[in-house]
From TrEMBL:
UniProt keyword Ligase present: no
Region (Disordered): 190-209
Any one GO biological process: epigenetic regulation of gene expression
Source species taxonomy: Bacteria, Bacillati, Actinomycetota, Actinomycetes, Kitasatosporales
SUPFAM superfamilies given in the database record: Arginase/deacetylase (SSF52768)
Protein name: Acetoin utilization protein AcuC
Family, similarity comment: Belongs to the histone deacetylase family.
Alphabetized CDD domains for the sequence: HDAC_AcuC_like
TM stretches of this protein: none
InterPro entries: AcuC, HDACs, His_deacetylse_dom, His_deacetylse_dom_sf, Ureohydrolase_dom_sf
Pfam family membership, one: Hist_deacetyl
């Protein structure tokens, strides 16, 4: 999914969420010749009724007002804050990103495609009545709500961003049709601070066990992160049997990202994408909607990771050792004055011990995994 208009989602030159990351990703997809393996589609911006599947009408109206006149803002709706400063055209740009995710979901529902990617999406922090964490409209939640509206009975959401997927969890907290799984840095050291702990497992009466949160300690690197992901996600997906898997692939888990404290390499992040792709085929009949998310190393990390995402979804994976095209590096320098990376790898070969081999009660990562399994698995009739 692509439309040049997504680059107008722009909080300003000093904001970490620089839209150049989107333009550079699309250019890298093109320069690697991936367009011959996929269809590129646009979509209309999401309208009020579609946005209203998740967001309150008073909030949508506030975004429209701020979009028309950034001086007409309301802090009660999370606008004109340091994270979410209002900008001209904000509603239109955010609604376009949401529209791309919704169109991707609809294409999966009709069977027109098996995999769909909107790396411009994944804006998982926006709440029904407020902007939050650089996110104006919550496109993952809106896309999931659209799938439910179309009649699906089970949708799984996997969030691999460094931050907790709080807005999506909030949207479906009491809905047993949606399983939300988030693997993130522990909220005691990172935004959003107040959610994302393992004891958050869904509304106790209506949807017990519909939320799973793996809160990892700061400093977790490839082996620990991948061990945690594989120790929780596949068993939950096998039990839930989703009709569609929606996954969010924020690039901010990388060791170069200055907004957080996990230490993944590009190779570890890529292994997470490969796992999500495999799980979509194994547990969701291949129906996979893959989204972007956070990521603020806008030249070195984001374009490479999301180009891997597109290539894996297109069943045309790139060799990690592949050199970045000179044409792309020239574009990156022209736009950012950064020379950019040379290869599609950080030179790592991630390996991790499987959970089935046992756990170390003194290891902080294993403590996090065990806390999640003990909180959620029994609610679903699974052994912790």
């Amino acid at each position: 999914m692509w439309d040049d208009g997504v680059t107008r989602y722009n909080f300003g030159p000093q904001h970490p969420m620089n839209p150049v990351r989107l333009a550079l990703t699309m250019r890298l997809v093109e320069d690697f010749g991936l367009l011959r393996h996929l269809d590129v589609a646009g979509a209309r911006p999401a309208g009020a009724s579609t946005l209203g599947l998740i967001h309150r009408s008073d909030y949508i109206d506030a975004v429209r007002r701020a979009s028309a006149d950034p001086r007409d803002t309301d802090r009660w709706h999370g606008l004109e804050t340091e994270d979410n400063p209002a900008f001209a055209g904000m509603h239109e740009a955010a609604a376009l990103i949401a529209g791309l995710s919704v169109a991707a979901a609809e294409a999966l529902h009709t069977g027109d495609v098996q995999h769909a990617v909107n790396f411009t999406g994944g804006l998982h922090h926006a709440m029904p009545g407020s902007a939050a964490g650089f996110c104006v409209y919550n496109d993952p939640a809106i896309a999931i709500a659209r799938l439910l509206e179309l009649g699906l009975e089970r949708v799984a959401y996997l969030d691999l961003d460094v931050h907790h997927g709080d807005g999506v969890q909030e949207a479906f907290w009491d809905d047993p049709r949606v399983l939300t799984i988030s693997v993130h840095e522990h909220p005691r050291t990172l935004f959003p601070h107040i959610t994302g702990r393992p004891d958050e497992t869904g509304e106790a009466e209506a949807a017990p066990g519909s939320a799973a949160n793996v809160a990892l300690p700061a400093g977790t690197s490839d082996a620990g992160w991948l061990r945690a992901v594989h120790a929780v996600v596949p068993e939950l997906l096998a039990d839930f049997r989703p009709q569609v898997l929606v996954s969010q692939h924020g690039a901010d888990t990388h060791f170069e990202d200055l907004q957080a404290h996990l230490l993944l390499s590009l190779d570890g992040q890529r292994a997470g994408i490969e796992a999500a792709h495999d799980w979509a085929h194994r547990y969701a009949d291949g129906r996979w909607l893959a989204l972007g998310g956070g990521g603020y190393a806008v030249v070195d990390v984001v374009p490479r990771l999301w180009t891997h995402l597109v290539a894996i979804a297109a069943h045309a994976p790139l060799e990690p050792a592949a050199a970045l095209p000179d044409s792309w590096r020239q574009t990156a320098y022209a736009l950012t004055r950064e020379s950019g990376p040379w290869r599609m790898t950080d030179g790592r070969t991630p390996r991790w011990p499987g959970w089935e081999g046992g756990y170390d009660p003194a290891d902080p990562v294993d403590q996090a995994v065990l806390a999640t399994r003990r909180a959620v698995f029994p609610l679903r009739g699974l052994l912790p």
